[in-house]
Write a structure and sequence with these properties.
This protein is mostly beta strands. It is 7% helix and 40% strand.
């Protein structure tokens, strides 16, 4: 994963918002609208619907009730100490990301794809993962509270849960 490379551009909130606006209104394949190899931190975030962010570091961001990540694509990012609370993330992709010390509660994940991602020491509360693609996904030392994995299967407590190349749950360790 290239996130954390020395060529990463650190952005402030107005710079980040300008790139997001450019990506939403202009061609996404334009270098001016590329959200790659960036670093953004300590910012409340609103609407990132349909926005692609790749190979970047996102830390201490707050996604709340007014935030939306529907249809967004995040590839190969480091996501550190972020909060996703009551955030719409339907049909979003978080692929090959490392998500560490984050909190996800009451987040909408209908047809989301978390394939290849690793969640480390995260807190997940009140989530329904039954329609989320979890191919090669790992939840390492995470705390689950009322997380529906599939109909009739609720996860609670601190545990490690992994999924194989077809998205089938593997044996878990406490």
């Amino acid at each position: 994963m290239a996130a954390g490379s020395s060529r990463m551009r650190k952005l402030n909130k107005p710079e980040f918002e300008a790139l997001v606006a450019g990506q939403k209104t202009g061609p996404q394949d334009s270098p001016e609208n590329d959200l790659r190899d960036i670093e953004i931190s300590d910012t409340p975030v609103q609407n990132l619907d349909g926005v692609t962010i790749a190979m970047s570091r996102l830390s201490r961001l707050s996604f709340g009730l007014g935030s939306s990540l529907q249809g967004s694509t995040w590839i190969g990012n480091e996501i550190l100490d972020c909060t996703f609370s009551d955030t719409a993330m339907n049909k979003s992709e978080m692929l090959d990301c490392v998500i560490e010390a984050c909190r996800l509660n009451r987040t909408s994940l209908f047809r989301a794809d978390w394939s290849g991602s690793v969640f480390k020491r995260c807190t997940l509360e009140g989530l329904d993962l039954s329609t989320t693609c979890l191919i090669n996904t790992l939840f390492e030392d995470c705390t689950f509270t009322q997380v529906q994995l599939m109909p009739g299967e609720i996860l609670n407590g601190r545990q490690t849960v992994s999924f194989d190349p077809i998205g089938k749950r593997q044996n878990t360790a406490a």
